Amino acid sequence: MEPAQRWTMALLALRLVALDPRLGGIVVTARAGPVRDRWLDALGRLSLPLRKVPLTITDEQLFGGLDLAATLAAGREVRAEGLLAQPGALLVPMAERMEPGLAARLGQALDSAEHVLIALDESADEGEGIPASLRDRLAFHIDLDGIACSDALTGFGTLPETTDTCTTVKDIAAIAELCESFGVASPRAAIHCLRAAGAHAMLHRRRAVAPEDIEAAAILTLAPRATRLPEAGDSAPPPPPQQDAPDATADGDGLEIPQEMLLDAVRANLPTDILAQVAAKRRRGAKGAGAGSKRTGNRRGRPLPPRAGRPDGRARIDLVATLRAAAPWQTLRKAQSIHDRPVEIRAGDIRLKRFEEKSDRLLIFAVDASGSAAFARLGEAKGAVELLLAEAYARRDHVALVGFRGAQADVLLPPTRSLVQTKRRLAELPGGGGTPLAAGLKTATEIAVHAKSRGMTPTLVLLTDGRANVALDGEADRTRAAADAGKMAQAALLQGVEALVIDMGKRPERALRTLAETLDAAYVPLPRANARSLSDAVTGALS
Amino acid sequence: MTAFPFSAIVGQDEMKRAMILTAIEPAIGGVLVFGDRGTGKSTAVRGLAALLPPISAVPGCPINAASHADCPDWADVPEADPQDIPTPVIDLPLGATEDRVTGALDIEKALTQGTKAFQAGLLARANRGYLYIDEVNLLEDHIVDLLLDVAQSGENVVEREGLSIRHPARFVLVGSGNPEEGELRPQLLDRFGLSVDVASPKDIPTRIEVISRRDAYERDRATFLQEWQKRDAQVRARILDARALLPSVVTPPAVLERCAALCVALGSDGLRGELTLLKAGRALAAWEGKKKMTEAHVAAVAPSALRHRLRRDPLDEAGSGIRVTRMVDEVLSA
Fold first, then answer.
1. Which of A315, A499, B124, B249 could bond to B120 as cystine, CB 3.0-4.6 Å?
2. Which residues of chain A are within 8 Å of residue B98 when distances are taken between CB atoms?
3. pLDDT digits (tens, 9 = 90+) for A96-110
């Protein structure tokens, strides 16, 4: 699709949501910039009041609660209304960092009232993204990247009056077929598609849904969720059954369009990089939402000194410390106070409890799947990783998996606790190609840094034969490859990533030992042995 | 806002049956629904509330006590005659604090009136009803510990901030989640009586039906609800009949023996498997209006009652439901 056309579609999504708030909302993937600003300006045209939801929003602010400052000042209970009390357009910036808890609450809010949620996904890498449970509830996923200012010329335009549009069983059947051909499993997507088609018809002042409405709706709702591409020249799908569906009001004349045509139309309008997207989605699969606990929290762990702050529905008030803070002022306050209260407490006295907890451990397996390693003992390494996974399961550790071969390294699985996923990805990992050791280290370090910022303690387990022959830029050059690997190891050390290097070559490699020293990591040369002894070696080195 | 009617959910028979069985016999101990997104997991739980017969409770009582004598003394409930209220179905949101779950010192009262009062939590409100946890596998470990404790003892004990309070908390635990997002701890898994796996409908006619019903519900809610409320009412009446019949359902010793043989063959931990199998089988017999539990009933509920109790290999990809079905065939045909 041309950038200008993509811009029009992005605006169309917004117009449809403005017409039918039940569409849930829009996920907008875009960096901050003038194009995004122009799109966000159009949000003002929604009939709902626009409210910003920061990720740190508390339950009290969302659902309403006690207004502490006002309560203390007035001496009686004063309640503040929450953000979700009235239907509104909720704008969530940096939605890719959203915690699953907030996503679940927003999802529930969307289910129960007519809010519109605009989630701004500003993630830089494909490993991130907004929580799937929320993503599924928002009808449109649009991408503004690659649209230049000069492409974004069309304005929002005017909206027609909201009217009722008719949909027939045929429309529903067409949508169900489309979902099937694009491999969209979630029934929610199909319902969104139907609603979007209805809104599109409304936009063009049609009383009944026409094929072009379904086409536009499918491009907006189904294409971004596609997990496979329909094969060209499918045999014609079976005619949709007509019985036992609620009777539709329109007789549906003029809707006799063959599925094929609709399918082709949508396929022709798919984004150009859909294949890459589909592949990426397949590789990424379900994202693990194993959010690590913060190091300093206010819920559990070893107690820390209390800190002044406002109760936000999550923190717990340290009553004794609060009273202690208020105590010195009592005489003074009583003299000034018009109330006769046993204790005069002001908002500033409130002290919150804090705890320090041990953070969860994340094991990042960086597995060399190059030709040389595969030839030697990739199978054994896989076996060892599986044994380690069983141990990780027992200790409730998180695991991540990076595979490197050929020219680059891939995140096979972002940090997760789902062992079945890990095992599946590992089994799928093919062997062959060069050894891009530097790229593998780089990707693994990135995961480690990201995990650290989320409060986890990452440990990198590098399984390789150490015969690096592909440089960081993907060129096959043995000397540069070794130098790059050394540099990346240094970078990892600077980031404070704990590491362990397992030499899975046929005989110990001197270069790898040097690399391990740079990483300040334990080096385990693996004698010819079975997977069990490899796993024992790792457990020994880690403890 | 009225929930989508339970009986209007297309397919997902195993899930619907499991929920109905817990409504007939709450002692089964809850349902765990695991599966893809958008398959009607939470819709079913919310719709379930409409199916449950009302309970009689003292108005204003935080724990929904049946008589004034059962109301906790800390709640200071005014004397009143019990009234019929809908069976409580309480949502436990992710990220709920311990305070909100167990209840805690009422900060408002402490600060504004200077009195020490207890503010009841979600566990109190769920007493005699259902506690629903969406995305149960993402629940934080310390909340899970707490739930395990309460689910086992049927009593919530709060010892904090100078409060010392205990109140009954007996509820049916209903959890749902997507297994790809994380695992559930075996201890919690074991607490659920029945476990069902749901998947997105694969065939096109079913999908069409799902979309059309949802569309009809959203277009004209009143008419749609009216249409389906009759069906819901029929289900409710049948649940009540089954409840009445349940005490008189007999279990022949041969069937009991088969239950035990099945659990032994599957190597399920503990005896909870047999007990759940028995209760669920009996409830199913009552649902079908039979006075005698048969082997067919055991076979029908065995996958839901046992699939989550097998000692499992964390790396086993094949669903344990298949293992149970295979074993059921083997044991029951022997």
1. B124
2. 299
3. 888 777 888 888 888
